[in-house]
Fold this sequence. Notes:
The chain is of the alpha/beta class. It contains eight helices and seven strands. It has helices at about 15-25, 40-50, 65-80, 105-135, 145-150, 155-175, 200-215, 220-235; strands at about 5-10, 30-35, 55-60, 85-90, 135-140, 180-185, 245. The protein has a seven-stranded parallel β-sheet, with helices on both faces. The protein is globular, with a radius of gyration of 17 Å.
Amino acid sequence: MTDRRVAIVTGASSGIGAAVALRLxxxxxxxxxxxxxxxxxxxAVGAACRSAGGRARVVQGDVSDDGACRALVAAAVxxxxxxxxxxxxxxxxxxxxxxxxxxLEAVDFARxxxxxxxxxxxxxxxxxxxLRDSGQGAxxxxxSIAGTCxxxxxxxxxxxxxxxxxxxxxxxxxxxxxxxxxxxxxxxxDTPWHARGMDATRLERVIATVREGTPLKAITAPDDVAxxxxxxxxxxxxxxxxxxxxxxxxxxxxxxxx
Length: 258
């Protein structure tokens, strides 16, 4: 066991996951940068982590596959000898209006829950032996205000994030005192992810509405979310089972956006 910290960040090829990996590396951590498909983008994140001062290895794997989760943990321990932090950031959605009940099929729910909920659970289960051995193991699940305010890209996505928040609370009891686990619930985050479900005109309109509607009059960037995630991992020694909104106060005014 070394003084350096070792982290796995799932879904780290872009957006929040990439920002978390880079911030951890800048703090001197060694990072497993996970991606499901975007290997080239993940390699760029890994290179940036190394430039920031940490060691990094890219490991491709879909967290909905339990074998891939176990392989991720095995790679971290084989490469760096330990595992201290896990950030469950990998996620997916379907962009379907909540009023369009015919727009979602059972397969959509199954795939979204497989990644957003089951995938996070499988990663936690696979990582637990190493996190216990760490003596300061910590987990952060990346949820969403969709899970607390019942809004977002689809009913299935909102339900999955609510389940992830519930699971965080449940596991905080089960994993204590060896491992702390918390969640963050971002609001609208300025990443390319939104372009998958909105054309440019609508996206511009949403950004303007969110900026004007948040109490802090701000659009959240990936690094704005990464900062409290890293704090929860490294410093929040008496915090477990919590869900922290990181959204410039957007959840306080969700009624006007629902």
